[in-house]
Design a protein that fits this description.
About 35% of the residues lie in helices and about 20% in strands. By secondary structure, the chain is α/β, with parallel strands linked by helices. It has a single domain, classed as Ribonucleoside hydrolase-like (Inosine-uridine Nucleoside N-ribohydrolase, Chain A, Alpha-Beta Complex). It binds beta-D-ribofuranose.
């Protein structure tokens, strides 16, 4: 059965590949809308980048809403140093002509979820969780309408990527992540522990390029732009490809391995701000609020992405 999804995102090259993977899977996903978030870059870029990606894939029927321009409590931290001045540097994509929706992203989430039957919508989060956190504060009853949240967020065994202990999406808005993790909604978390296994080696990107369709070629060009930062940082043969773990997990859960645990967000200490304190060994009796994905199969992952990218224009 097709899953009805709303995408929360701050594209970003890896988010773009995630969105393209979703759009290349029309038998699996019905995309109700996209809510752009401030994160990798400021909101004025992320909402525009979301529209650029939809136009690239010929899917201007999907509405894009702009959400909050900054996190709940803290000044915005971006990852422009990785993603470039527009957040989506790499391929030369034209300025979008499809309109941005007038309705604020938080109001869109509340209205759409309240109109849905209980548990029928999945939230795919590729970004900081500001807009979902705000929507849950504004209308807590939306929690019952969401079947599951599948999010790229967090890190535990691998340590952090923006501070020694915090993963970027959680660090940008720890308070929003805290609201979401305490909401009682079923959550699957794809942290750095698994995304660091999914490395976009030269051979894997070459495979996308040789597919020859414009979306796959653009995806390869995006990764070629954002890769060098991570290659230098980690010294690996390919950069981690984070965002597409969300659709890949939903399409083929057998590629991944994890367990139900408690995850609590650090919101007090500046030293460890935004850390996802994962009780992987079940040391405490805190409620198991997250299915925490620890491992994945990179070969199967890249096969799946190539297969879905190939279906696009
Ligand atoms: C996350 O941080 C961002 O910079 C990436 O796009 C990804 O969403 C990984 O920590």
């Amino acid at each position: 059965m097709k899953r009805r999804i709303i995408i929360l995102t701050d594209p970003g090259q890896d988010e773009a590949v995630a969105i393209l993977t979703i759009l290349g899977s029309p038998d699996d996903f019905e995309v109700l809308g996209i809510v752009a978030t401030a994160g990798n870059i400021e909101l004025e870029f992320t909402e525009k980048n979301a529209r650029k990606i939809l136009e690239l894939a010929g899917r201007t029927d999907i509405p894009v809403h702009a959400g909050c321009s900054r996190p709940m409590h803290r000044p915005l931290v971006t990852a422009q140093h990785v993603h470039g001045p527009t957040g989506l540097d790499g391929p030369d994509l034209p300025e979008p002509t499809m309109p941005l929706q007038k309705q604020h992203g938080v109001d869109y989430l509340v209205e759409t979820l309240m109109a849905a039957a209980s548990g029928t919508i999945t939230i795919c989060s590729l970004s900081p969780l500001t807009n979902l956190g705000m929507a849950l504060v504004k209308e807590p009853r939306i929690a019952g309408r969401i079947g599951e949240i599948v999010m790229m967020a967090g890190a535990y065994f691998e340590g952090g990527n923006i501070t020694p202990t915090a993963e970027f999406n959680v660090y940008v808005d720890p308070e929003a992540a805290d609201v979401v993790l305490r909401s009682g909604i079923r959550i699957t978390m794809l942290p750095l522990d698994v995304t660091h296994q999914m490395r976009s080696t030269k051979e894997r990107l070459q495979r996308w390029r040789s597919l020859g369709n414009r979306c796959a070629v653009a995806a390869a060009e995006m990764m070629a732009f954002s890769e060098p930062f991570d290659l230098k940082k980690y010294g690996w043969d390919g950069a981690p490809l984070h965002g597409p773990c969300v659709p890949a997990y939903m399409l083929k859960p057998a590629l991944f391995r994890g367990r139900d645990i408690n995850v609590t967000i650090e919101t007090g200490s500046e030293l460890t701000m935004g850390m996802t304190v994962a009780d992987y060994w079940r040391i405490t009796d805190r409620p198991r609020n997250v299915f925490y994905v620890r491992d994945g199969d990179p070969e199967g992952y890249y096969d799946l992405l190539a297969e879905r990218l190939a279906r696009l224009p």
